[in-house]
Amino acid sequence: MFNKFFSGNADDLLAMVCTAPTSEIQSVDDPNKLLNRGELIDTVIDEFQVPKEEAERIVTEIQTEELTKICNKMVEMGLVEVNEYDDEGNPKYTPTELGRKLVE
Questions:
Q1: Which of 16, 41, 65, 67 has its CA 20 to 30 A from that of 73?
Q2: β-bridge mates for residue 95, sequence order
Q3: Torsion angles phi and psi, residue 95, rounded to 5
């Protein structure tokens, strides 16, 4: 609700905030609240004034970088290991014994 730009007058803004669910108000600026892909794309379009296709590319690139960081951390923690690489040189991960135990 609060991750989109608002347009309207002060009365409209007040009405929107007054009728907002408490959970939405409390989660404003919560770093742990995740946006869905569509919301991310809309935010990039609004913030950087780029076409949808460019926003999708940017979001995909950011998500890929974040996933790589998470996978690398999981390798460091001993939860997964790289057992092979695909045709493009990307690692393929498999769970370790420790990783399997944590899932069970």
A1: 41
A2: 80
A3: -70, 145
Burial of 63-98, coded b for 16+ CB within 10 Å and e otherwise, reads eeeeeeeeeeebeeeebbeeeeeeeeeeeebeebee
- Crossing angle of helices 37-48/52-77, nearest 10°? 120
Instruction: Render pLDDT for 11-40 as a digit per residue (tens, 0 to 9).
Output: 776 776 677 777 766 666 666 666 788 888
Annotated domain spans of the chain:
1-33, 34-103
Can you tell me which residue has the tokens 């940017």? 58
Sign of CA dihedral 18, 22, 23, 25: positive
8 vs 57: CA distance, rounded Å: 31
